[in-house]
Amino acid sequence: MTQRITKYQRFIMMNPIIQFFKFIYLSLKVLIIVAGRHGGTRKLK
Length: 45
Description:
single chain, about 45 residues, mainly alpha, about 0% strand, membrane, transmembrane, transmembrane helix
């Protein structure tokens, strides 16, 4: 396997802040999907 990683990709991989935001973004997406699927459990009248 050849090493075909660019400096930009390495910067993104090594940057903990970017990783942190990516993690938050993914968690939010999952939460929205779960909340949308199970919507109506806390319906306010």
